[in-house]
Amino acid sequence: MSVVDKLKSLHSAEEFFELLQVDYQPEVLQVLRLHILRRMGQYLVSAEFEGKSEDEIFVAAQSMLAQAYEDFIKSNPMAERVFKVLKEHDPSRPPEPGPKPAFVPLTSLKTGS
């Protein structure tokens, strides 16, 4: 089975770290697992594996996972913003053009009684 096929078959963050032999702190992974795996996925998508040996692919994937882990050790999810919902609520992002959704304060709502 190829390295890429093995990666596709994994189900937990711990399995990725074990397969790729990357050290991690369980308490860090417990909190940041989705962010780390999402970032690794971003790195994998931008990688070119065509013509590479299985050993080269393994080392590249190992390096990408280690880098993704380091990204969140040195920073935090709010600064890295790997998920769409965090990107959309980035205060440094310019506002989207067009009308904003109307804000309806709860105090203006009437009950049916």
Automatic annotation (TrEMBL):
The keyword S-adenosyl-L-methionine does not apply. Keywords: Nitrogen fixation. Pfam families: NifW. Residues 89-113 are annotated as: Disordered. InterPro entries: NifW (IPR004893). One of its GO terms (biological process) is nitrogen fixation. The keyword Cytoplasm does not apply. NCBIfam families: PRK00810.1. Belongs to the NifW family. May protect the nitrogenase Fe-Mo protein from oxidative damage. Homotrimer; associates with NifD. This is Nitrogenase-stabilizing/protective protein NifW. It comes from Xanthobacter autotrophicus (strain ATCC BAA-1158 / Py2).
